[in-house]
UniProtKB/TrEMBL annotation:
Organism: Eshraghiella crossota DSM 2876
Gene3D superfamilies recorded: Transferase(Phosphotransferase) domain 1
Protein name (Swiss-Prot/TrEMBL): Protein kinase domain-containing protein
Taxonomy, superkingdom: Bacteria
Gene Ontology molecular-function annotations: ATP binding; protein kinase activity
InterPro entries with a match to the protein in the record: Kinase-like_dom_sf, Prot_kinase_dom, Ser/Thr_kinase_AS
SMART domains: S_TKc (SM00220)
Every Protein kinase domain range: 49-294
Annotated Pfam families: Pkinase (PF00069)
């Protein structure tokens, strides 16, 4: 274990630089998908029994709710290749501060690093609506300030201060800082030089150094200011914005909403000061908490750049008595997803062409063609693909499929009419070509659909598996890649469950993809 004298820089040097290797080993970005899936009833560290998965697979880890002797705990299982540095492990297991979540136990489980934390059942600031000024002043601000001070005086920059990492405790009378997974140690120069970390909505602007950024304790305090904006408003000041739009908001001169005023407005402006050397830190915030008068900073936190010529907005429609207009392609895509039926009318309007021309002249001819489509849903989907930030996502007729695999799973059930229409209208093939999937396989799929429509789901699913290069499938909540891994899962299933599995086109397609047609035939002979 490392004591404070080994890790804590001199007080006068607080504000120091981290190496990415402290928390993320080389190549880990490519390994983050390799994870272990734990089932309810399994145990970790002998006595912690898994209850349920608390979140979807994250970039860095899976988080589970577990119990030991009737008490709830949280177990964080890192993906293969991810783990904090030894120095960070030592700090998190030894720290005893009321505003920092400490690691109760850590170790290896089947080759994957895990951490066990206390379970904070009162939720996070992310769960909270707009909070009262009194609560923010008496609970939120002092808790976060003291927690950050403890991290910073030990030379640690958190790098991801955001509402979902701030946990309520003691009947909502205390806030605890958690999830130090991407934190790192500062060096003697006082800053962290690394690729940009954190969450865009809660990341303050930092100075770029080639392909890296310099992050110091001031970075965490900038995030602190953005968290307080969410506490006042009930939502992020950048809610619904793309990364590009957030960047433009900073560059144009960030002006706080009118709800953020008075002493709290002074605090938030101090925390969001563009000059990191002038940005408020622990001492200024502590003085603010103690009621001292603090000089306000300028109303506009960042100096306004020269105003560029304004783009003309598109009037999208009127909903619940209010007119909805969009100013960017990202806002247009969000409006389409929320109001699909209205989008089917918008796609035929000349104003749409004029609006898109302001951002991308190369799209004009494509958009003009959409007005001629007989099926408006097909036209709207293609419009969305042309302007969408993430063309890998499938959003059609008001329904969202995050990945191709999720779409194929729904299609294979035979019950999802929207998924069927996406297939039979040719949009699945369009999606695959647009995203540069293997041309030979896509041609095969197109011929198959043209010949049989959606009647041969096993063949369709098999081709889709091949297109994704997938060898894994989710069976009863467990991700498996081989028949050997499947056997222990089936041993716990009833005959009825196995029978239903063997009838699944998705499962049959997986076996076909791996070349197990003969094994499939044998299993059907036994169970069907």
């Amino acid at each position: 274990m490392i004591n404070a004298s080994e890790t804590q820089p001199p007080v006068s040097n607080i504000g120091q630089i981290i190496n990415a290797g402290e928390t993320i080993p080389p190549g880990s970005a490519n390994l983050s998908g390799q994870s272990i899936a734990l089932l309810a009833g399994e145990s970790v560290a002998d006595s912690y029994v898994i209850n349920s998965l608390m979140n979807k697979q994250g970039k860095q880890s899976n988080v589970y709710l577990a119990k030991k002797w009737g008490k709830s705990y949280v177990i964080k299982i890192y993906h293969n290749g991810w783990h904090p540095s030894n120095q960070m492990q030592s700090f998190l297991t030894s720290v005893r501060h009321p505003n920092i979540a400490h690691v109760i136990e850590c170790g290896q489980h089947e080759g994957y690093y895990y951490e066990i934390y206390e379970y904070y059942s009162e939720g996070t600031l992310e769960d909270a609506e707009a909070l009262s000024i009194t609560h923010i002043q008496n609970v939120i601000v002092p808790s976060i300030n003291e927690g950050l001070h403890e991290l910073h005086r030990n030379g640690i920059v958190h790098c991801d201060i955001k509402p979902s990492n701030l946990f309520y405790s003691d009947n909502n009378n205390k806030v605890v800082i958690g999830d130090c997974g991407i934190s790192g140690y500062a060096n003697s120069n006082g800053k962290l030089v690394d690729a940009v970390r954190g969450t865009p909505e809660y990341a303050p602007r930092v100075k770029a150094l080639l392909w890296s950024t310099a992050m110091s304790p001031a970075y965490d305090y900038g995030s602190f200011g953005l968290v307080l904006c969410k506490a006042v408003l009930g939502h992020s000041i950048f809610e619904g914005m793309s990364v590009e739009e957030i960047s433009k908001a900073w560059e144009g001169g960030l002006i706080l909403p009118s709800q953020i005023s008075g002493r709290l407005g002074v605090l938030i402006r101090g925390l969001l000061n563009e000059d990191e050397n002038q940005r408020w830190g622990y001492l200024q915030v502590k003085r603010w908490c103690e009621g001292e008068y603090m000089r306000p900073v300028n109303r506009s936190i960042y100096s306004h750049a020269k105003k560029e010529s304004q783009n003309k907005p598109l009037i999208f429609g009127r909903f619940e008595g209010q007119t909805l207009s969009v100013n960017t392609l990202h806002q247009l895509s969000q409006a389409i997803k929320k109001h699909w039926n209205q989008a089917s009318r918008i796609v035929k309007r000349r104003e749409l062409i004029d609006f898109v021309r302001q951002f991308d002249k190369n799209l004009v001819d494509k958009i003009r063609e959409l007005a001629l489509y007989q099926d408006a849903d097909v036209a709207v989907y293609k419009l969305l693909m042309y302007i969408e930030d993430d063309p890998q996502q499938i959003y059609f007729c008001g329904k969202e499929y995050n990945f191709l695999s999720e779409y194929v799973e729904q299609l294979a059930t035979g019950k999802d009419e929207i998924a069927k229409k996406f297939l039979t209208t040719g949009l699945l093939v369009f999606y695959l070509r647009y995203n540069d999937y293997d041309q030979v396989q896509v041609d095969r799929l197109e011929q198959l659909i043209h010949r049989n429509g959606d009647d041969d789901m096993t063949s369709i699913s098999t081709i889709c598996f091949a297109l994704q290069g997938k060898k894994a499938i989710d069976i009863f909540g467990v991700n498996i890649e081989t028949l050997d891994a499947l056997i222990p899962i089936l041993s716990k299933c009833s005959i009825k469950e196995i029978d239903e599995l063997l009838q699944s086109d998705h499962f049959v397609a997986w076996l076909n993809r791996l070349g197990y047609e003969n094994e499939m035939r044998k299993m059907k002979e036994v169970f069907i």
